[in-house]
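Box S1 | Example of a co-folding query
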Amino acid sequence: MKIIMLGAPGAGKGTQAKKIAEKYKIPHISTGDIFRANIKNGTELGKKAKTYMDQGLLVPDELVVDLVVDRVNQDDCKDGYVLDGFPRTIPQAEALDQALARLNQKVDYAINVEVPDENIVNRMSGRRACVGCGATYHIVFAPTQKEDVCDNCGGSLILRDDDKPETVQKRLGVYHEQTQPLIEYYTNAGILKEVDGTIDIEDVFREITNILGE
Ligand code: AP5
Ligand code: MG
Ligand code: ZN
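Box S1 (continued) | Returned holo structure for BIS(adenosine)-5'-pentaphosphate
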């Protein structure tokens, strides 16, 4: 099962992708997480990506496409995967389709997690990310058991650099301009599925499992 998560920044793509990956036992591939790991490790890719990410801009397609195509060609992706944060532009979607076509494969579902802009800024200011393992929490909607300590690895929690309200606004603008056209792209491909991202995390997941099957 090959799944793409679509949605605005903060819609809950990462939250749901993690749950999908656990239930269906497929890898969760988040380009944002890959870039943040590269930034943390001080790689060349990380240095390049950071200059864009800090401004709320997209990293150029040429820095993203090969990375994802290589990743989905790895062995653990044989039975499928859930892509979170990729594709984000029409050229990225076309590059993915072409790479899959060469293997006689295609994407099965593009799940769009719908959340209006008004809800997003509030949501982001409450998000906390673990410095150790990258797990995501929310101070109100998905709190940790112990304040500011990761349930998963015991690491400490921080507000992501790009979650400041000004940067979130910028990311929303970039989303509408460059990523939203993918909704039409995948509607035309006949694989778009919409879920309501404003309801509780577990209820969103129920909508998704209704689509994907048990
Ligand atoms: P990325 O890391 O992908 O960020 P994003 O798309 O902006 O999305 P987020 O991770 O912020 O949100 P999310 O939808 O995953 O929401 P989450 O589940 O965390 O990308 C970061 C940057 O990297 C980009 O700006 C770009 O520069 C670069 N980049 C990455 N991929 C790229 C690509 N392909 N091309 C070019 N550049 C790329 O949820 C948000 C919060 O809400 C959490 O606190 C969560 O607990 C909470 N929450 C989730 N669901 C609910 C719910 N139903 N109710 C209440 N709260 C909820
Ligand atoms: Mg995310
Ligand atoms: Zn952690």
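The CA atoms of residues 22 and 28 lie 9 Å apart. The first strand starts at residue 2 and ends at 6.
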